[in-house]
Amino acid sequence: MSPVAQRIWIVGCSGSGKSTLARRLAAATGLPRVELDGIYHQADWTPLPDAEFCARLAEIIAGEQWILDGNYYLRTKNLAASRVELVVWLDLPRGQTFFRVLRRSLRRVLRREKLWNGNRESLGAIFSPNPDTNIVLWTWRQHPVYRRRYEQAMAENSFGSAQVVRIRSSAELESWLAD
Fold it and tell me: Are strands 163-167 and 66-69 parallel, antiparallel or unpaired?
């Protein structure tokens, strides 16, 4: 990681470790961490309208220091892409992200963990056959979508002059962090 990176965006499929990495980087650098899901998912899982989401994001990225944790690449109309200095793309294998999300969701349900704006995951949602409400199925379905999206973004130089790091395994992540 560039020691001068003050504006970092961590992207990747659900279960890839975005939030964990963002917490680790924030602790190591003192940079403020912003979890984009916490802005987007309002009470009762109501999505924040795109215009308001983009307005909030614009305020955040106007600052000189931040770590963004989350995707929303298409929804933000390239707001963050114009300011970011370092993009970390966690591109872990599909099966690994799937099982991480399953384990995480079950833990959240069993512990009744509150997420953003008072939301909680439910056992019914985890076992729902609808991938739009079942985060586990959604992750399985979206993994190749995210891979294609970020491969295309990298090929088109969508992040401008930002350094881009693509990490494909947990071992690779630990090695990158050690450097």
Answer: unpaired
